Amino acid sequence: MALILSQEAQMVRDTALDFFRDRSPITALRKLRDDRDPVGFSRDLWREMAELGWTGFLVSEDDGGSAFGMTGLAQVMEAAGRTLAASPLLSTALLGASLLSQAGSADQKAAYLPPLLAGEHIFALALEEGTRHAPHQIAVTAERDGNGFRLNGQKTFVQDGHIADTLIVAARTVGGGITLFLVPGDRATRTRLIMVDSRNAARIKLDNVAVGADAVLGPLDGGADVLELALDRARAGLAAEMLGSANEAFDRTVQYLKDRRQFGVAIGSFQALKHRAAQMFCEVEMTRSAVLAAVSALDESANDAAALVSLAKAKANETLLLCSNESIQMHGGIGMTDEHEIGFFIKRSRVAQVSFGNTAFCRDRYARLMGY
Amino acid sequence: MPTLTTFRAETRAWLEENCPPAMRTFMPENEQVAGGKRAKYVRPEQKQWLDRMAAKGWTAPTWPVRYGGGGSSNEEAMILEEEMQDLGCRAPLRGMGLSMLGPVLLEYGTEEQRQAHIPPIVRGEIRWCQGYSEPEAGSDLASLRTRAILQGDHFLVNGHKIWTSNAHLSDWIFCLVRTDPAAKKHEGISFLLIDMDDPGVRPRPIRLISGASVFCETFLENVRVPVGNLVGPLNKGWTIAKRLLEHERKGIGGIGARNAAKFEIPLQTVAKQFFGERDGRIADPILRDRVASFAMDSQAFQLTRRRAAEEAEAGVPPGPLSAMFKLQGTELNKRRYEMLLEAEGFQGLGWEGEGFTEDELRFTREWLRSKANSIEGGTSEVQLNIIAKRMLGLPD
C-alpha cells in the first residue's frame, strides 16, 4: 500500500485540477441550476473528460481502457470535488465501467464499453429502495418470463438515473439472491429528483418491464458479490470527491480569515477561529491519508480494502460535514447568501454523506470487519 | 531493493538470537529502561538487552557510528522498528537523551560536546532531564527567568525549574536560561548542559493525581557551569529550544505507536468483556459505535504518520507536521483511556487493593497519567497555535 502518489498519478491529478478549475468552476454548477438544465451536466464537457481517458481507468487495456485503477480515478474525483463539478464520473466512469468490466459478458462489453469510454453512453445504478443506503434490502423483483425476465418495483436516489441510457438494476430473482440487469433507461418511468445540491438523481418505476436473457449482468443470483467491489470503489471514489470539496471549503475559509477585517484586524488573528481552523486542517489531512490508503488497497485487492474503504468514507463524511459547516459560520452573514459560493459546499455535503453509506453505516461495517 | 531485503532478514535473525524472551513481553511502566548512574533493573535481561542493542548502536539507529550510533538510513531504522514490533521486542532504552538532546547536539553541538555526551546517551550510561518550564513560564516558555551570569570561564546559574520529569533519577539536565535580561524575551535565552552532581542542583519530586511522582521541581542555586557546556551561540538558545521541542512532540505524539502495541489489550476486547457480546458484536450498540469511531480515528492517525514517513523518504520537504502529530496522538491517547474506563464500568474505579485486577488498576493510573500528554511538550492549545501560524499562515 502506497500513501504517496506515483508520478503518473500526480500527472493525472495536476491535469484534473487544471481541467475543473478552468472548464467547470462552481459558476458552471450554478448555471446548470439556474437554467434548470434538463440533463444536469454538460455532455460536451463529459466527452472532453472521456478524451482525457478518465472513463477508462477501471477498464482493461484489452477492452479499450487503461486499467489505471482507483488511485487514478480518485485524483480526478477529488479535483471534481474541488469545484463541485456535476458529471457522470461516479455513475458511469466508476460504477458503470466497474460493473461491466467485472461482470460483463464478451458481447455486453463489446456493445456497451466503447460508447461508455467515448463519453456517449450514460449508466446509472438503480440500487436503493429504502430511506438510506442498504445494498442488500432489495424488493424489486425479476420474474422469469420465457427466456427473459419481467421487472417490477421502485428504485430511488438513482444517481444520473433521469437521463441514463442504461440502468443497471439490482433485482431479487427466483433463487432469492440479487441479480443485476441492464435495462434501457427509457423502459422505466423516471421522475427526476431535484435535490439540494443541484446534482442529479431520479426515482424509477419498473412496471412489468420485459428484458431478454442477455440483459443479465453477471451471475444469476450472484449480484451481491459483484456489487461488493463496485460499491466499495464507489465509496472510495466518493470519499475522494468529498475530500476535494472539504479541502476547497477549508482553503477558501482560511483565505477569508486572512482577508476579512473586524475590530481593525484580520479575524484570522482571533484564537477562537485559529484553533478551529487548525482542527479542520488536521481532519483534512487524516481524511487524505484514509482515502489514499483505501484506493491503494482496492487497486492491490488487499485483504483490508473493505475496512479501509469504510474508514475513508466515514472520515470523508465527518470532515466534509465539519468543513462545510465551519466555513459558513466563519464566513458569517455573507456565507448565508446564495450569491456567495461557499454555501454550495454544505449542500453537496448533505447529499454525498447519504450516498453509499452514511457514517453510521461505515462504522457498523468497520466494526463487523474488525470482529466486534 | 535487495539490500533492504537482506537488511531485514539479517535484522530479524539478530533480534531472534539476541533479544531475551523476557524482553519480548508486555513492558509495564516500572520496567521501562532509562539508564543513568542510578538505573535499577527489575530483571537482569533488561541490562543484557540494553548492552546488546547499544553495542550495535541500535538504541539510536540513525545516529553516526563515530558517536556510537547505528549509522542506519531512515529506511533501515524503520525496518528495525517494524521487526522489533513484530517480535514484540521492548525498547531497550528510552529517555530524553535519546529522544530530545541527542538529535539537537548532533545538529548544534560542538565536536567536543558530541564526543563527550552522545556515546554515554547511546549506551544508557547517563540519564538526562529537561529544564524548560518554570512556575511562571508554562505555555509562555520564553518568559523564563532562571538566570545565568557569565563569570570568566563559567556561568553562575540561579533559578527554579518545574515539571522536570524524572529529575530525581537523572544525572544531567539541559536547561534554558536567561543570559541577557535586557534583550527581548526570545533573544536573551541560552541553552546550557548542567551536571546534576553540583550540590546547588536540588530536585524534589511532585506527587501527581496518578499517585506517581515522575515530575519534579528543580532548584538551581549558585550552580557553576563551565562555558564549554553552552550549546550554540550565547543568547541564541531559543532556536535550539524550539528544535528540541519538535523532537519532543514527535516522541509524545508517537505514544499510540509504542512497541508494546503487540501486547496492548484492545479496547474492543475490554468492551466485550464487560458489556458482553451478541452475535460476535459488542452487545451495547452505543458503546460499539464509539469504539469503532475511536478505532477509525486512530487508524487514520497511524496512516497519516506513515504517509509523512513515506513523504520524507521520497524527499518531499517536511512541513511542521510534528505539531499535528503531537496534538492528535495525545488527544487520541486520552480518549482511549476514557473509553477503557467507561467500558470497565465499576471495575474501572479501582485505586489499589484486591478488588481489582492488575490491568484494571494499571488502566486507572494510566488514565490519570494520560491527562499530562496534552500538557507536556506544549499544550494542545499551543499545538493549535503552531498549526494555525506555520501551516495555515494565520496572523498573530
What does the model show?
The complex is a heterodimer of chains A (372) and B (396). With 372 residues, chain A is an alpha+beta fold. Chain A has helices at 7-23, 26-34, 43-51, 70-82, 89-103, 106-117, 223-259, 271-299, 305-331, 343-354, 359-369; strands at residues 123-126, 141-145, 148-159, 166-172, 178-184, 189-194, 200-211, 216-217, 261-262, 265-266. Chain B has three domains: 2-122, Acyl-CoA dehydrogenase/oxidase, N-terminal domain (Butyryl-Coa Dehydrogenase, subunit A, domain 1, Orthogonal Bundle), CATH 1.10.540; 128-231, Butyryl-CoA Dehydrogenase, subunit A, domain 2; 242-391, Butyryl-CoA Dehydrogenase, subunit A, domain 3 (Up-down Bundle), CATH 1.20.140. Helix content of chain B is 43%, strand content 14%. Chain B is built from eleven helices and ten strands. Chain B has helices at residues 2-18, 44-55, 74-87, 96-108, 111-122, 237-253, 267-275, 285-313, 322-344, 358-370, 380-391; strands at residues 128-131, 147-151, 154-162, 172-178, 189-195, 201-206, 215-226, 230-231, 277-278, 281-282. Chain B has a four-stranded mixed sheet. Chain B starts with a helix and ends in a 5-residue tail after the last helix. Residues 255-259 of chain B have low confidence and may be disordered. The chains are: A alpha+beta (372), B alpha+beta (396). The interface between A and B is large, with 39 and 41 residues.
Lateral strand order in the biggest sheet of chain A: 1-4-5-8
Number of domains of chain A: 3
Level-2 CATH architecture of the largest domain in chain B: Up-down Bundle
Strand content of chain A: 15-25%
If classified by CATH, what would the architecture of the largest domain in chain A be? Up-down Bundle
State the fourth-level CATH superfamily of the largest domain in chain B: Butyryl-CoA Dehydrogenase, subunit A, domain 3
Rg of chain B: 22 Å
Briefly note the structural class of the backbone of chain A.
Answer: alpha+beta
Number-wise, the strands of chain A total 10
Question: Which descriptor suits the 3D outline of chain A?
Answer: globular
Distance between the termini of chain A: 25 Å
Count up the domains of chain B: 3
